[in-house]
Amino acid sequence: MGKRIFSILILTSFLLVSCVDSHRSMKEVVFVMDTIVTLDVRDHANEKLLKKMTDRLMEIDSLMSFSKEESDIYQVNHAKGESVLVDSSTYYVVKKAVEYTQMSGGCFDPSIGRLVALWGIGSDDEHVPSIKEIEEVVETIGLDKISLSEPNSISLMDGTMIDVGAIAKGFAADEMIRIAKEAGVESAIFNLGGNISVLGSKGSDSFRIGIRNPFSESDEYFGIVEVTDTSVVTSGNYERYFIDESGVKYHHILDPFSGYPADNELSGVTVICSSSIKADAFSTALYVMGLEKGLAFIEQMDDMEAIFVTNSRDVYLSTGLQTSFLLCDDSFRIPE
Description:
Blueprint: E1 8-10, E2 26-32, E3 35-41, H1 47-64, H2 72-77, E4 84-85, H3 88-103, H4 113-119, H5 131-138, E5 146-149, E6 153-156, H6 168-182, E7 188-192, E8 195-199, E9 207-212, E10 221-227, E11 230-236, E12 241-243, E13 249-251, E14 266-273, H7 276-289, H8 291-298, E15 304-310, E16 315-317, E17 325-327
Antiparallel strand pairs: 1-9, 2-3, 3-7, 4-6, 5-6, 7-8, 8-11, 9-10, 10-17, 11-14, 12-13, 14-15, 15-16
C-alpha cells in the first residue's frame, strides 16, 4: 500500500528573520486536518499572528472532521434525519459544497460520506466492498438528501452522510489568507497538504509553484506555474490508495454515480483559482468528469484554469495556461 500527502511542491525559499518588523518573516509547521500544514508569512509576521492561524485551523478541524464525535459533521451524520444547528463556518462550507455539486452536475458531491466510509481508503479498514453494498450506499447519495435551513441548520435523509474532506482544506486556506490580510500581510504562502494558496507576490516576482509528478515516488515536479494572489490545488490517484491481492489499485477519488474510484485514464488534475475552496472542490469534480468533459467544463469558467495529466503522461492545459505553464520534465508531453 502506498500513500501520498503532497501533490504540489513549493519552489521558493523564505527568510526566517529580518531586522525590520514590517519585513519580518516567520514559518510554522503543524499537523492538523490529517495533513502537514506549512504557514510561511513573509512580512508583518509575529507569534501572535501564527497562533491565531493555527488556532483557526484546529477549530475548523474540530468542526468539520468526519470522524470526531464532537464535530458538527459527525453530529449531522448521526442525527437520524433530525435538524442540527451548526457553526456558521460549517454551514458555509456545506452550502458551498451544495453549490459546487449543482455546478458540476454531481461530479463533486458531499453526500458520499457513507461511500467514503464503506471503502475506508486511507484507514485500517480499507477494502473492496461487494457490489450489493455499493449499490445500496449509492442510493443514499444526492442533493435531494440534504436540507439547509437559514441561518445554520442542516438535516439529512436518514441513512445519508456528508463528508466535506474534499473541500474543508480549501476553506481553511482561504481563512489563512483572510487572517493574513487583516494583519496587514502583503506576501505569504500557505501549504495545506498540497493545497497551495499564495498572497501577493515574492518581491517583484510571482511565486513559482511546481506541480507534483504523479508517477514519482519522491517529491519531484514535472511543470511550473507562476502565480500571484491565487490557489493551486491538485487531486490525484497517487495521494491515497491501496492495492488488493490481485494487484488492482483503488484510489480515494470516488465517483458518486458508480460508487467506485473514478476510472478515466487521469492521474491528476490541478486547478488554479483565486478561491481555494472552489479550487479544492473542482479539482475533485474535474477528475471525476474525465479529460474530455473536464476540459469542456473548465473552458466555460472565467475564474478557473486547469491542468490535466493522463496515465500516459500527456499534459492538457486550459486556454489561460497555454503561455504561463512551463513543462520541465521531458518524460511528459503537451499534445498539439
